[in-house]
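Case study.
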Amino acid sequence: MIAAHPRLTDVAQAAGVSVATASRALSGRGSVASETRDRVRRVAADLDFHPWAAGQTLRTRSTRMIGFIVPDISSTFYANALKGAQHRLQAAGYQITLMDTDERPSREEAALRALAAGRVDGLILCSSSGDGSAVRSIERRFQLPIVLFDNILEGVGAGRITLANEAGIQLLVGHLVEVHGHRRIGYVGGIESETSGAERLAGYQAGLRRHGLRYDEGCVRLGDWTVAAGRGETAALLELDDPVSAIVYPCADLALGGLSELRARGVSVPDEIAIVCFDDTDAAPLLDPPLTVLARRDRDIGALAASMILRALVEEPGEPMDVRIPMELAVRRSCGCGQATTGGGPAVGSHSAGHGRAD
Amino acid sequence: MIAAHPRLTDVAQAAGVSVATASRALSGRGSVASETRDRVRRVAADLDFHPWAAGQTLRTRSTRMIGFIVPDISSTFYANALKGAQHRLQAAGYQITLMDTDERPSREEAALRALAAGRVDGLILCSSSGDGSAVRSIERRFQLPIVLFDNILEGVGAGRITLANEAGIQLLVGHLVEVHGHRRIGYVGGIESETSGAERLAGYQAGLRRHGLRYDEGCVRLGDWTVAAGRGETAALLELDDPVSAIVYPCADLALGGLSELRARGVSVPDEIAIVCFDDTDAAPLLDPPLTVLARRDRDIGALAASMILRALVEEPGEPMDVRIPMELAVRRSCGCGQATTGGGPAVGSHSAGHGRAD
DNA sequence: GTGAAAGCGCTAACAA
DNA sequence: TTGTTAGCGCTTTCAC
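After joint prediction, the assembly is written out as follows.
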């Protein structure tokens, strides 16, 4: 229930003009005598008038809302991306309606439908589904600009932003091989329902190939993208007859679980087993040992998604813009590097992967 | 820009009824012949009709949106609370507009004004401001139900939820004194602009008092609520002539910074200095040593806030409901306890503090 | 049980 | 430059 606040008619009346003039005076569109405009604005300020969104939306067909759909807002990557996006959108007069899908494709689709039905002007979608058909139909149906973020779906999106998943993992594998001489490297990943998971696994394979190492299916364990799975799959990897000397984790939770399992078993990291991780987090430099990861600027990435949406909102639907976010090595100690910083600021290495724009 | 989807008139026309009947058939309010109702609903489904929010809002004065204002959504506490709140609100047909204020009171006020102007039906506010006057004026002005969450502001709020800050910290201090025999305990906190910070500091003081320990101002360091400040203030604490043997941290970031500083200086935790922390996080059990903290059910707390808002939305504005969330010890190793789990599930101790409801 | 019509607050086309 | 007016999509009286 929304209660009485001053309406445009109240402002108009108090200023002794018509609502049309009041509207023009406040919006700046159309011509108004500067004297009148000032008077109307003064009155509006006195009355603490704010135009009622529903009226504007009904008339202009714009909600000034952008939907942001994420699998899990408690992931720092999405949270920081959201902050970056919000910052930019707010500057452009937009607000964010957030939907957390708990990684469930069914909820994602429900979120999509709920928002598409006139609640938002555009959508930033971090899909956790592998199936783009729902998105495609909604994009067509509602002619709604959708920016795909983190995970790509085939044939959809007014813009797409992805991390350099494959190149990033190759960077990690390369570091393990070239700097530390590992020859048998394991991979504990999540089941790849979406592109980013698949690309990371592909990066692992390509990394091995590039360094002339044999790809052994037994060294790859895929489960959920959770701490618990990280623990379990790492345990499974340790049972191997011919054990690995290093493990690559494509996400923070898996690495946390893996590290916990290794510690529980008394396996020394990085002396007995080295580990590296795709995601950086606040805690990563403070773990024991500090985690070697890939660094990126989460907030900027979110801001970029926001810019893409804003662009799609004003421009004709041209070619979808495809951006790959490059990754950089943040070398710490879990890879075996000796005297790297234990502090917070990621010690960013000199290698970098990915390129600014593809397509 | 929102594009053409079917309107209620389209549904009505296709079903051969008036818009009024179509509206009644779909909403279930008013009487419609069951045959007619079924026909209309079938047609609506065929057309994939979704009522356009702005029209409903304009007419009913309800947006079915709840604003959620947080200082920092990348904090897992707020993120999980949001998830809990969203879950409950969605079930009641509401969505969430999120505003992250980056801990800036000016942004908080801007968020408040932006949302109050007809964009939301109610507000869940995690304030980072100590001043309730802006909130009070908005609450009055717009007659908007506001649930205060985590931080309390004087004389405002249709409902208030706080953690048992004081009792929780006392639990931590009590554990350090009773179980581990510490007599000189430091506190590295944030500058208390809001109630929860002040209550935690008060809990520290009360904890000392209860155990007959002298309160020494020199053992208390207050800075920002950040990792960097945790590092700096911990360093300052270590410079003391008469050093402390344990440190209490009232939030996760401060503890992370503190732990990092201690490690950098080669101070062994918990042998030389024991530490405990108010906040639990995913990483806490995986740090070295695993952090002894207070456990709580973040999602449930968010769901509770949502319930309060929903209640305020339907009921007359009765007495504001005041709830304190009790805290429990999750004993790990940073306090000096020996063989506690290193794994993920918090090893919840038997003590608990706080009570279900105050007022 | 159903339809006609009014009106929520706002903007924009048109007239003056 | 300003006012009059229509109408966005929906719900809800009020007649029938």
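Observations recorded in class. Residues 7-9, 19-20, 23-24, 27, 29-30, 51-60 of chain B lie near DNA strand D (CB under 10 Å from a C1'). Chain B touches chain A through 67 residues (CB under 8 Å). We will return to this complex in the next lecture.
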